[in-house]
What we know:
Helix content is 75%, strand content 0%. By secondary structure, it is an all-alpha fold.
Amino acid sequence: MDNNARQTNAGSGGKLPQRDSFGSKLGIIAAAAGSAIGLGNIWKFPYITGIFGGGAFLVVYLVFILLIGVGVMLAEFLIGRMAQRNAVGSFRELKPNSPWQYVGWMGVIAAFMILAYYGVVAGWTLSYIFKAIMNAFEGLDPDGIGTLFNNSISEGLTPILWQIGFMAIVAWVVIAGVKDGIEKYSKILMPLLLVIIVILDIRAITLPGASAGLEFLFKPDFSKLTGDGILSALGHAFFSLSLGMGTMITYGSYIGKKENLGVTALQVSIADTLIALLAGIAIFPAVFAFGIATNSGPGLVFVTLPNVFQQMPGGYIFAIMFFVLLAVAALTSAISILEVVVAYFTEDLNISRKKATIISTVGITAAGVLTSLAQGPLAHVKVFGLNFFDLFDWITANLLLPLGGLFICLFVGWILSPQKVKDELSNNGEISIPYFGAFMIIMKIIAPAGIAVVFLHGIGMF
Ligand code: PHE
């Protein structure tokens, strides 16, 4: 990253800040993959796959990644790199004086709501590092480990303190501008996370009774699939790839003009999907081996893996390493979410980076407290039949992100000039883009129609 650019950016009060840019090819992939790979892959993917019945959900999810996700990621990259602006500013730049900027605003709202509950779950992860160090799982049976989890997230104040701790780290990184430092570390730490998950996979699939778990995950039973499940698969494809709210627009604006956007979008999507699959392979065999309910919800990973750690040599160390790396993965994602809000405040509202970060972090954390309390003291408070935690999750993943993705596709497919899109994707004719025709059909018709149908079907319109 260019040092001058960063200094200008950090200190910019009034003027339009010069933009950061990623230093190297690996830097871009590391940052975009760092955003994509997070709690979504390791915590959320297994638990919603469990709730919606396993294999069939997985198949639908993979289809959405391939048919819609990769294309939307490319669309976001190209919008950001073309406009050189944040999520809101990009639309304003490319289509001035039009309602398109509201798509960016919707993204800022989604970012706010996602980070609210994301910070809570990341807080659970921090508390599990501590539990692992204290050897808190030792000697507990699966029921005991389940009770430990439920107690720890529902006791009111303690999880809130962990949440505040996590959010403070996120804000600190965003203010101090040490993101590139973090990215450097995550280039080492994320491969290490991959190694640990693979080791967990091996342990999990060699447990007695494990094959039922693999069957659950890989043998689709389409009769289990509901409209709600299909919508959740779509919503999770957006959530997991960090799409539909401008994260990849913001990151796209940092990508150098020589990079191949198509290849980058494909690589990031593959890496993200691979981690989710490997997490599923670590979880489900163990879920069956230990007799844990597949539909246990948000606690699934936190309850299943401590049982696995107990059953492996060196489990004490693996547990600590796993939760540390999960927290780092959550951190790189959370940074990218906060960045959407902060980039908007600093560039469009002319607020200093520090002020913008502090204000938005305080607001987000306060909203997040509601979602934390929804695990205990406020569990009975329901809006549309959902507690605050599930409400924030549902509104963002199943409504705002797919809707944002829909508009992003329409924008690229119908509003931008096809020649300009072609020039941006091909770096002005420097690289070949054999996928261009297919990409435009996806943007114009396939993705918007697919999203609309899945959404209307999911909310029971037909
Ligand atoms: N993709 C991240 C994860 O899987 C979460 C995220 C969602 C990040 C939306 C940015 C935008 O954990």
